[in-house]
């Protein structure tokens, strides 16, 4: 199963990819978010072209685990995508991923690093359950 992770930022969607069963998570680029229609078209095309079967999205909860304006924005984004894609979606608590990403060495963008951390968290939880 091909899985795509998304870190939804104010300027870019950071992307990471893996094939379930492989122990390798790869950065998968960024999509600019300034034009929501173009962003969604690019993402939908990517999901279809790469035969993505599941999308995992980072959910920016507050420090106490509460939902907020950003959480609502991301839930609305996912609901919009669900209407256009017949695949599974899941959420991962993304608190501290930006901080973790900034502490991670490498030449890839912090958006992609955050998406990789989101996907790693998701896969670890799936493995533990």
Automatic annotation (TrEMBL):
Its main location: cytoplasm. It comes from the Bacteria. Residues 1-101 form the YqgF/RNase H-like domain. Its EC number is 3.1.-.-. One of its GO terms (cellular component) is cytosol. InterPro entries: RNaseH-like_sf (IPR012337), YqgF (IPR005227), YqgF/RNaseH-like_dom (IPR006641), YqgF/RNaseH-like_dom_sf (IPR037027). Keywords: Cytoplasm, Hydrolase, Nuclease, Ribosome biogenesis. SMART domains: YqgFc. One of its GO terms (biological process) is rRNA 5'-end processing. GO terms for molecular function: hydrolase activity, acting on ester bonds; nuclease activity. It is found in: Cytoplasm. It is an enzyme of class 3 (hydrolase). NCBIfam families: RNAse_H_YqgF. Belongs to the YqgF HJR family. Could be a nuclease involved in processing of the 5'-end of pre-16S rRNA. PANTHER family: POLYNUCLEOTIDYL TRANSFERASE, RIBONUCLEASE H-LIKE SUPERFAMILY PROTEIN. This is Putative pre-16S rRNA nuclease.
């Amino acid at each position: 199963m091909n899985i795509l992770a998304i870190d939804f930022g104010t300027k870019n969607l950071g992307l990471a990819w893996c094939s379930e069963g492989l122990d390798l998570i790869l950065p998968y680029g960024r999509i600019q978010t300034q034009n929501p229609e173009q962003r969604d078209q690019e993402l939908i095309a990517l999901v279809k072209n790469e035969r993505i079967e599941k999308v995992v999205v980072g959910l920016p909860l507050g420090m106490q685990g509460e939902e907020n304006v950003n959480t609502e924005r991301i839930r609305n984004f996912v609901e919009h995508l669900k209407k256009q894609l017949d695949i599974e979606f899941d959420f991962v608590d993304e608190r501290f991923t930006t901080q973790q990403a900034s502490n991670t060495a490498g030449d890839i963008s912090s958006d992609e690093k955050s998406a990789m951390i989101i996907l790693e968290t998701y896969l670890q939880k799936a493995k533990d359950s």
